[in-house]
Automatic annotation (TrEMBL):
InterPro entries: Cupin_8 (IPR041667), JmjC_dom (IPR003347). Pfam families: Cupin_8. Signal peptide: none annotated. It comes from Sphingomonas desiccabilis. This is Cupin-like domain-containing protein. It comes from the Bacteria.
Length: 343
């Protein structure tokens, strides 16, 4: 895989850069941001970054010293796949999932690192707290009162199809180089998304091969590119990706490490919107058109507009789940759904 942005991507505008001086400034920026931004050198003082700058082997040694003696989940792709972890021709996956201890995985990476024909090796979304001792204490971003999920992503050269995530995301390059190609939320129609239930990693992904787009098959992808931005990150750099923004991610170096933080602006006891979408496909999508129109009106009334007229005629103490949700009322909805789905 070429390290310079190939072809059409070479001319895409760069993600805007911001400068922050300390945790308070970063907090202020995150609270007001509605679009992605890059902070150069945000984590340049991390010991892991320093180890990676010395060599990939030093970065691996640093992680090995702090690993817990647990099996890690690792994805192993196909030789000659150019690092792309994706579907195969039968819409299965072109990689296999294995479990092994980190020294064994890193031994494979030692052997494969300089072999361009070697299969990609990728450890995705490894919980920093569960799988390492002291790694977070020595290498973390102060995100104030947020309680993020901290994950580490480790691998050889890889290409991860464009996808999005419900939480906000701050992604920090600790070793190697990463390229992010970012698209606004509304571009989902132009990214040609694949299945929502059969996915490489839990989220629907773009079916477009970013290294060789087929515009005859995916003509609307040109419109997506008209709204795209690119961020090429060196060790120590970070990119902020707002909730639901689409991002295609490439590990450009022979060995790459990313640490990211996911958080929501809403309480954890609220449900996942994707689950509601999946349930709507089950219960509403295939209804007759006149019934679907009625359910669209009900969704607008109770969910999207949710104005005072919804509850004004009900005594305040009797509004139940129509009132602003609490952990208790959210729990009642969850229990009701679990009973209904188990029938």
């Amino acid at each position: 895989m070429a390290e310079a942005a190939p072809g059409i991507f070479a001319d895409l505008p760069a993600v805007p850069e911001e400068t922050v001086a300390g945790a308070a400034a970063l907090d202020t920026l995150l609270r007001s941001a509605t679009r992605p931004f890059v902070v150069r050198g945000l984590v340049a003082d991390w010991p892991l970054v320093a180890a990676g700058r010395r060599s990939a082997r030093d970065a691996r040694a640093y992680l090995l010293e702090r690993r817990r003696d647990l099996p890690f989940t690792v994805s192993v792709g196909q030789p000659g796949s150019d690092g792309r972890l994706f579907y195969d021709d039968a819409m299965g996956m072109n990689f296999r999932i294995a479990r092994a201890k980190l020294p064994e995985i890193f031994a494979q990476i030692d052997r494969a690192e300089e072999d361009p024909a070697a299969p990609p090796i990728y450890l995705g979304s490894i919980d920093v707290h569960d799988f390492f001792d002291g790694l977070h204490a020595e290498n973390h971003v102060d995100l104030g009162e947020r309680q993020p999920l901290a994950s580490i992503w480790i691998g050889t050269r890889t290409r991860i199809a464009a996808h999005n995530d419900h939480p906000h995301n701050l992604a920090c390059v600790a070793a190697g180089r990463r390229r992010f190609t970012l698209f606004p939320r509304e571009q989902f129609r132009n990214l040609y998304l694949g299945p929502v239930d059969n996915t490489p990693a839990g989220r629907a992904v773009s079916m477009v091969d970013f290294s060789a787009p087929d515009f005859a098959r995916h003509p609307r992808f040109r419109e997506a590119l008209a709204h795209a931005h690119v961020a090429e990150l060196e060790p120590g750099d970070a990119v902020y990706i707002p909730s639901m923004w689409w991002h295609h991610v490439e590990g450009l170096a022979p060995f790459n490490i990313l640490v990211n933080y996911w958080w929501r602006d809403t309480p954890r006891w609220l449900g996942q919107p994707q689950e509601a979408l999946n349930h709507a496909m089950l219960t509403i999508r295939d209804l007759p058109e006149d019934e679907k129109r009625h359910w669209r009106d009900l969704f607008d009334h109770y969910v999207f507009r949710n104005g005072e007229e919804v509850v004004a005629h009900i005594p305040e103490g009797a509004r139940s789940v129509l009132a602003p949700l609490t952990p208790e009322s959210a729990g009642r909805i969850r229990s009701f759904l679990l009973r209904a789905l188990s029938r």
